[in-house]
Recover the amino acids of this structure.
């Protein structure tokens, strides 16, 4: 049995993980950049179908709403089948959606094909990509997250001119056909998401799929215990409380017990608040520039500056967040990034002329990249990689509402007051508020976690309670793991592992 | 650019203060800022308070000045709202209405400051869409004040214009633009020095699309033409067949062409059931009071095979990549399994050895 100890079942933090990061880069890039990139075709489609611009803009909104709203479904599927099949299926769905959109004859069909089907496919791409990073990385997870999230601006910068080129040469129908093929590359990204953790189990036994997943969860949880002891006491207590069978079953697919998790709730409330003011400035930056007299091309260039700074900021933030000074206090760094974002927006109305706006775009790109790079990293840090699957699904569906509300509220403010500055002030205020809230609550959370950690250590020093704790954990293992004869030898290995862990 | 901006401001001011005067029931008459001072048949000038003001004239005029330091071809447009006449009026009735009211026309002045550099020529574009009075004048730079016997000639093409209004250092001509024949290029030339200024009087330009509209066989194509700022009287669509232009009659071929106007400034041409022959150049023509203006659009028809090729190429690439990745994974797993088997065998041998005599060395190895 000692043969498998050498291959530490914890996250490899490298090796094939980087291929997974590249796959996540492509997948996340498509998921975030595609709804924005499609907007290039809108003017032509609007004239073709003879509709108003707002009716066309619904296509983008439906796509974005579906991508975020289908988060829980994506989480359930990943919990059941693992990341790889879900992403491959998502890629196929995107491709089918866009190809069928090429043959659409009405705006309603476009809503369905481009909006729902492609949006759902992108949702099936987004969540698993973020989840797989948590499974492959632990020590270098912030860097991996930063690199993967950098896919979004890179894809946007690539898609925008590509879409224009396709449109000039093939018209909108041909472009949708070819874009469908390009989206199939998500399947390639999915193929890179090799299942992890169960590699050793596969070699030795023929465990069932569910058994593999349960093992994965336990294994990763052990890894978490090794290096992030603060997260564990909460989780074991939570799981032991969820005793009923049906609740357990549901929780296996989508962990609703997360709503009792303090860190998760803090993250949820803070992020839902933040997203109210997150996307509106980007949407209105170019119109604002035109409003104060800047020509169209320079206004578009502002967005390019934003994207380029964003591209550089994301991996850099990942590296900074990974450093030993920041990693333990990564929640504070996140709150700071959000508040910095808010401060930028509050100062924007003071920017006069093109130079002022360029400076604003640079800082905004920096802040935007910082927040996005750490968006999922902080959630992983709070709930742990095992429950992250369900957490990300629940968070995205909650954010869905505010993401969709943000730009229209901004638009209403602009229309009522006729001035863009109120929109910027609103976004800035909301984000500063969110940042402060997260800062204070995370300070409280860290203190509580430290307290619980002390209690746990005090208990461990007491030998009686160690045995009961181990027994408790073994009982819990027997409950959650799917019982099967194949798993017996594995569990023995597991406990051998645990003893080694506790020893070190 | 300060000049363009001030011209724009002027244009806005003028548009703001244009309205039907109380006396005439129909006709595009214009009132000036001080309505009480409008006089029939008189040259009325409004001072916008920009640069020089001629003390000889009592009344105020809209004066548009271009400084020569600006770009050689500034484009200043003054829009007159024709819609007050009603959409049903034909061009002929329109002209009669103009003639009846010519006495109460107000003249808009365009002035150019000639630069001190000899051998230069300045060009100005003036866009007109309905009947107006125009006064063009060329003002001399102070450099030339010392010269005696200054003579400025006004020409349109080759014919010289006789009635020149001369003030202290500017020469102007008055024009009543009532129909297309009066449009064109008017130039003032300073004799001796080769300095001139040219005014191009034109109808508003219609923009088509530079890039071709791509569509597919059997599909529908929609072509849109817009007029910016000026409202045309009528729209007509033409199709280029060889070297001829054929008007498109949508009532004749109702199942092929559909023309409709969303608003007066915009026209849509919808072509149904596209075939290869529909490929080519199309023109949208806007008829204004003073003439017609065309916009060019290109239609390109492709067969569905054209985008299908890149599509299949990319799908093939995806399939190949996925296969390679899966094959590599299976290969590396096999390798792992083989390595494991070897490792296991070595371990077994080791354990057999350690069960033998050399206990201490085995213990070292295990740790």
């Amino acid at each position: 049995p000692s043969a498998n100890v050498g291959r530490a079942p914890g996250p490899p933090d490298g090796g094939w993980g980087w291929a997974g990061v590249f796959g996540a880069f492509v997948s996340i890039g498509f998921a975030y950049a595609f709804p924005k990139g499609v907007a290039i075709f809108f003017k032509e489609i609007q004239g073709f179908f003879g509709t108003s611009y707002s009716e066309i803009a619904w296509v983008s909104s439906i796509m974005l709403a579906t991508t975020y709203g289908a988060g829980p479904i994506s989480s359930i599927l990943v919990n059941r089948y693992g990341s790889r099949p879900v992403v491959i299926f998502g890629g196929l769905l995107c491709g089918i959606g866009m190809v069928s959109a090429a043959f659409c004859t009405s705006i309603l069909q476009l809503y369905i094909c481009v909006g729902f089907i492609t949006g759902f496919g992108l949702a099936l791409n987004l969540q698993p990509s973020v989840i797989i990073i948590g499974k492959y990385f632990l020590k270098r997870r912030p860097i991996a997250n930063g690199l993967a999230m950098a896919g979004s601006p890179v894809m946007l910068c690539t898609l925008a001119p590509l879409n224009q080129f396709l449109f000039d040469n093939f018209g909108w129908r041909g472009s949708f056909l070819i874009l469908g093929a390009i989206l199939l590359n998500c399947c390639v990204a999915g193929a890179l998401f090799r299942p992890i953790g169960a590699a050793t189990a596969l070699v030795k036994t023929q465990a069932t799929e569910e058994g593999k997943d349960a093992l994965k969860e336990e294994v990763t949880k052990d890894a978490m215990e090794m290096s992030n002891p603060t997260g564990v006491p909460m989780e074991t207590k939570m799981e032991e409380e969820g005793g009923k069978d049906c609740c357990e079953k549901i929780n296996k697919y989508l962990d609703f017990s997360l709503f009792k998790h303090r860190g998760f709730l803090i993250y949820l409330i803070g992020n839902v608040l933040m997203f109210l003011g997150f996307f509106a400035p980007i949407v209105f930056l170019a119109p604002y520039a035109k409003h104060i007299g800047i020509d169209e091309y320079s206004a578009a260039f502002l967005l390019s500056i934003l994207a380029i700074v964003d591209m550089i900021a994301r991996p850099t933030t990942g590296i900074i967040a990974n450093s030993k000074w920041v990693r333990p206090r990564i929640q504070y760094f996140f709150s700071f990034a959000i508040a910095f974002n808010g401060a930028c927006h509050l100062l924007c109305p003071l920017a006069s002329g093109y130079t002022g706006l360029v400076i604003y775009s640079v800082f905004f790109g920096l802040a935007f990249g910082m927040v996005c790079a750490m968006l999922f990293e902080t959630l992983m840090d709070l709930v742990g990689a095992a429950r992250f699957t369900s957490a990300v699904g629940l968070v995205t569906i909650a954010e869905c509402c505010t993401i969709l509300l943000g730009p229209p509220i901004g638009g209403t403010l602009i229309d009522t007051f006729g001035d863009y500055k109120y929109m910027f002030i609103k976004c800035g205020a909301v984000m500063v508020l969110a940042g402060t809230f997260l800062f204070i609550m995370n300070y409280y959370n860290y203190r509580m976690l430290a307290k619980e950690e002390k209690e746990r250590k005090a208990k461990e020093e007491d030998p009686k309670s160690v045995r009961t704790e181990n027994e408790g954990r073994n009982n819990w293992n027997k409950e959650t793991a799917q019982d099967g004869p194949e798993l017996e030898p594995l569990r023995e290995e597991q406990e051998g592992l645990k003893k080694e862990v506790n020893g070190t | 650019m300060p000049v363009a901006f001030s011209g724009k401001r002027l244009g806005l001011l003028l548009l703001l203060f244009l309205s039907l005067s109380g006396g005439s029931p129909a006709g595009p008459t214009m009132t000036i800022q001080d309505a009480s001072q409008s006089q029939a048949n008189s040259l009325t000038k409004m001072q916008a308070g920009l640069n020089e003001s001629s003390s000889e004239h009592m009344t105020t005029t809209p004066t548009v000045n271009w400084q020569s330091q600006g770009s050689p071809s500034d484009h200043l447009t003054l829009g007159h709202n024709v819609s007050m006449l009603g959409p049903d009026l034909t061009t002929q009735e329109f002209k009669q209405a103009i003639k009846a009211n010519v006495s109460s026309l107000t003249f808009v002045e365009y002035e150019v400051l000639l630069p001190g550099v000899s051998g230069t020529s300045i060009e100005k574009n003036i866009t007109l869409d309905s009947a107006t009075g125009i006064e063009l004048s060329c003002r001399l730079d102070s450099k030339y004040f010392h010269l005696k016997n200054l003579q400025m000639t006004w020409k349109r093409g080759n014919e010289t214009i006789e009635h020149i209004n001369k003030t202290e250092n500017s020469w102007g001509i008055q024009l009543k633009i009532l129909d297309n024949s009066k449009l064109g290029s008017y130039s003032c030339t300073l004799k001796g020095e080769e300095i001139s200024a040219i005014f191009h009087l034109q109808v508003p330009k219609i923009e088509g699309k530079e890039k071709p509209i791509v569509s597919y066989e059997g599909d529908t194509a929609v072509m849109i033409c817009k007029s910016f700022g000026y409202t045309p009287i009528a729209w007509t669509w033409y199709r280029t067949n060889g070297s001829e232009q054929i008007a498109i009659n949508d009532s004749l071929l109702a199942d092929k062409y559909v023309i409709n106007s969303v608003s007066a400034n915009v026209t849509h041409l919808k072509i149904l059931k596209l075939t290869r022959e529909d490929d080519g150049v199309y023109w949208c023509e806007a008829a204004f009071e003073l003439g017609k203006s065309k916009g060019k659009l290109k239609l390109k028809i492709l067969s569905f095979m054209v985008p299908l090729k890149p599509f299949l190429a990319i799908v093939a690439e995806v399939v190949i990549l996925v296969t390679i990745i899966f094959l590599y994974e299976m290969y590396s797993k096999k390798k792992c399994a083989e390595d494991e088997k070897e490792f296991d065998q070595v371990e077994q041998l080791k354990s057999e050895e350690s069960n033998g005599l050399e206990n201490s060395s085995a213990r070292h190895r295990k740790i």
